[in-house]
Each structure stands twice: as C-alpha cells, then as structure tokens.
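Researcher: Go.
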Amino acid sequence: MNMGDVPYIDNPHAPDVFADAASGIFVWDGTARLTLEVLRPDHEGDGGPPRRVVVGRLIMPLARAEEMARLILMHAERMRATEESQTAVKN
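Model: Structure:
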C-alpha cells in the first residue's frame, strides 16, 4: 500500500518536538532510530557549561526515513537558493 493512498488526518494537538541536533542513529530490523538532543544550561551552583540532553527518539521504517531525508534536503536547497537570490538582488 502506498502512503498516499491512506487518508491523512491532521491532529492539532500533536506535540511539537524541538531538537538542537540528532546525536545518533541506529538501524535495526528495518527501522531507523534517531536520537534527538537539546543543549540545556546547568542551573546548579555557579552554573556550569550546558549539557546535551536527550529529548526523544524518532523511530520509523528505514524507507520512510530515507524519504524524509530527501524531503528535508530538497527544502534546504530551496531555502538556500531563495536566500542567495535575495542576497544577489541586495548587492
């Protein structure tokens, strides 16, 4: 079954997850497991350096993870092209 054939239902109550980085990926049994992290300040004592804290894991079939990677790259390339064209017009 193609994902496009399955009805799409948007859930406005679905949580948003912010991550500063993906700290690792592990592929097992056809699924990609991506660990997401954020930098958090240390508020104990005099406040030491920030810490990298895991905030979640995204687990999805490897084929869908590849599709997502291509989608992200496509949008990043479009954004860079738009920024470059706007910079060229300003100069």
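Model: The chain has one domain: 11-90.
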